User: Which sequence fits this backbone?
């Protein structure tokens, strides 16, 4: 971190911009962290896709299936690979505030730029209990901290509670994985006090246009919707950040075939069946030449049949062209 605790809110407003990728944790066949694979993926994210930031050890990173030592090691590798290239925000949350503080202090010590914490999910808590949990975390850390408000935690932050937590000195942002009506309510109450982001790529352009959003923090879209040869998400983001919304809309529309594949394999299982579809995400990554690997229990592995169908769907979307990553042309 390159700021003091009292400067965390200003630092977040200055440093959160553009595309931040929520990355997976690759595993070896013997179920260890694939450190070489993680480094290879990181170099693709930073050197080829030029993302502005990396969110690691979160939902995409299977944080619940990692030991504390593994979580720390992933953060160390990501920080090493990102140094001088992009910013890093690891997820350091745990239902134990002591474990959360330990993970957050580690992230702070090894050079992460910010940290993000999911709502404490056990035991179920009322607003005052949740506030005191965040207050203890804030009091014992200096790094800028984001709230990670998702229904998957089993506990959701009310807009009023979010605004109260936002008053804490180093609470500087929120990843609001909630309906846009709730996002708007939080935005009204918090104003510019903290940075707000929503993980849905399909809502990213409207959020920039209608709410003044400046950062997509974060999802897998920056690396599964793009290749070295075709980067429409990057293109329309830069256009929209320059207030060229009509041009941005035209570019964003070119992603519609890819979005349909994403909805089939990831969004629909996630939203309709409450399946965290990391095995499908890792299979998609492998089709793009990235390191995916297996998932850890209780998640289920992708089947051979599913992998073949996904490949066919992605090829039809024009994201792939005979495995080269170059976009095929469509007939007019």
Assistant:
């Amino acid at each position: 971190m390159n700021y003091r605790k009292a400067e965390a809110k200003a630092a977040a407003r200055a440093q959160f911009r553009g595309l931040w990728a929520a990355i997976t944790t690759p595993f070896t066949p013997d179920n260890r962290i694939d450190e070489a694979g993680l480094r290879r993926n990181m170099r693709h994210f930073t050197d080829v896709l030029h993302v502005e930031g990396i969110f690691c050890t979160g939902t995409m990173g299977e944080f619940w299936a990692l030991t504390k030592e593994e979580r720390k090691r992933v953060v160390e590798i990501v920080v090493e690979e990102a140094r001088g290239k992009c910013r890093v925000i690891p997820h350091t949350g745990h239902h134990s505030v002591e474990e959360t503080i330990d993970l957050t202090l580690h992230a702070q010590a090894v050079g992460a730029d910010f940290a993000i914490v999911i709502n404490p999910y056990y035991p179920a808590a009322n607003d005052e209990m949740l506030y005191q949990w965040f207050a203890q975390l804030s009091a014992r850390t200096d790094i800028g901290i984001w709230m990670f408000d998702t229904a998957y935690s089993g506990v959701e932050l009310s807009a009023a509670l979010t605004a109260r937590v936002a008053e804490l000195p180093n609470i500087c942002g929120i990843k609001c994985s909630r309906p846009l009506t709730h996002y708007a309510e939080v935005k009204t109450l918090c104003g510019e006090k903290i940075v707000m982001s929503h993980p849905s790529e399909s809502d990213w352009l409207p959020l920039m246009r209608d709410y003044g959003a400046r950062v997509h923090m974060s999802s897998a879209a920056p690396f599964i919707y793009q290749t070295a040869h075709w980067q429409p998400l990057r293109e329309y983001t830069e256009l929209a950040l320059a207030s060229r919304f009509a041009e941005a809309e035209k570019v964003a529309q070119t992603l519609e075939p890819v979005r349909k594949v994403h909805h089939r394999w990831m969004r629909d299982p996630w939203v309709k069946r409450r399946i965290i579809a990391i095995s499908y995400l890792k299979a998609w990554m492998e089709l793009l030449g990235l390191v995916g690997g297996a998932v850890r229990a209780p998640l289920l592995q992708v089947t051979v049949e599913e992998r073949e169908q996904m490949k066919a769907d992605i090829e039809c979307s024009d994201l792939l062209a005979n495995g080269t990553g170059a976009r095929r042309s469509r007939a007019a």
User: Anything to note?
Assistant: The longest helix spans residues 256-272. Residues 5-233 form a domain with the TIM Barrel fold (CATH 3.20.20.70). Confidence is low (pLDDT under 50) at residues 322-332.
